[in-house]
Amino acid sequence: MYQHHNWQGALLDFPVSKVVCVGSNYAKHIKEMGGATPDEPVLFIKPESALCDIRQPLVLPADLGSVHHEVELAILIGSTLRQATEEHVSKAIAGYGVALDLTLRDLQGKLKKAGQPWEKAKGFDNACPISGFIPVSEFSGDPQNTPIALKINGEVRQQSSTADMIHKIVPLIAYMSRFFTLRAGDVILTGTPDGVGPLSSGDELEVSFADRSLTTRVL
């Protein structure tokens, strides 16, 4: 069963709960998906059953169509946020990590076309492989100006900086807290840059952000 841990693998004393995600948060990704820039953040939730350790081999759903990778900066919430100010948000961030927002792209396309919610395409079991978290006190640099990248089989597929986010981290989390109470142990995913694409069995992945990287593979 998934538990939160730090980058080195030690368990963190935070409960595991929901993942609140934002879509369409990088302009080039919006363009590649043929979408329009939304006026307000597009929010959706992955349940706790979507979380899994990114260091373990990734298990893709069978017979549900193409599964796309979306690399994202992940944020661990350390205390309750409800109708929060940006100041409160800044104090409540416990750590930073990196995650894959796995997406059943064929299914998502059908759901979008029908005007239906995305949860089946975004919230399935193991749809959120995630790294350990670097505590805020140990994170060097600016989380809002941090490189993030994904290589597959040695080839760069996604590469950007969190500086390119449309909705910045702290105001984004404050906005989320207007609709959903965020609690210690909740995870925020901050959107993916361009370069998304399908995963295949046997793929070797290298995920990096800031000056750290980790590897995993697809079963």
From TrEMBL:
Instruction: Please verify whether the record's keywords include Hydrolase.
Output: yes
Q: Which Gene3D superfamilies match?
A: Fumarylacetoacetase-like, C-terminal domain (3.90.850.10)
Record's Pfam families? FAA_hydrolase
Molecular function terms, GO-annotated? acetylpyruvate hydrolase activity; metal ion binding
Q: Does the keyword Hydrolase apply?
A: yes
**Record's superkingdom?**
Bacteria
Q: Where is the Fumarylacetoacetase-like C-terminal domain?
A: 18-210
Q: Which UniProt keywords apply?
A: Hydrolase, Metal-binding
- NCBIfam families from the entry? PRK10691.1
Question: What name does this protein carry?
Answer: Fumarylacetoacetate hydrolase family protein
**Species of origin:** Buttiauxella warmboldiae
